[in-house]
Amino acid sequence: MANKEFEKLQTENKNIIKGFQQEWSFCPVYFFYSNNYLDIKKNQFKNAFKDINQTPLNNSEKENLKDNFLIAYFGENPGSVSFDALVLTTKELKQLHNPTPRYVRTYNGLWFIKRKLKKTIRILQNKIHAYWLRKK
After folding, report:
1. Quick one: CA torsion of 32, 35, 37, 38, rounded to 10 degrees?
2. What is the pLDDT of residue 10?
3. How many secondary structure helices (H) and strands (E) does the chain include?
4. Distance CA 99, CA 41 (A)
């Protein structure tokens, strides 16, 4: 049973990576597993990777990331109202301030509606793109 759960999680992670590679073009996106979060928070990117093949970041990419990144994750929104979302946070996993885009609901757990992974990613990118256009 544990092996089935592990395989399910691996498939889910691969789908997230594929989804970002297919839908996201606003800026570079790199990936890491949550058990490596403390290293990422300290700007240690040895366990960060670029794609489904887990291609490591080159030195230039690592240098450009130092203190210059946000973290996105699928899970519970950290705000006062709890719901599942694709959440965008600081590297300390703190919620961004309005009017910066902070999340896109996935509607996971609602039996009557659920947003597809790729659409969720696309919506977040559109929100961020619109935000940056307004700031210019």
Report:
1. -140
2. 94
3. 4, 3
4. 24
Tokens representing 122 are 């696309």
Q: CA dist 56 to 32, 45, 134, Å?
A: 10, 9, 34
Residue 86 phi, psi (nearest 5): -90, 110
As for how many domains the chain has, the answer is 1
Are 106 and 85 in contact by the 8 Å Cβ rule? The answer is yes
End-to-end CA distance of the chain: 52
Concatenating the DSSP letter of every residue in 37-89 gives HHHHHTT--TT-BSSTT-PBPPHHHHHHHTT---EEEEEE--SSS--EEEEEE
- Residue-level pLDDT at 58: 97
Q: What is the identity of the amino acid at 109?
A: G
Domain assignment of residue 15, given as a range: 2-135
**What's the pLDDT tens digit per position in 49-90?**
999 999 999 999 999 999 999 999 999 988 778 899 999 999
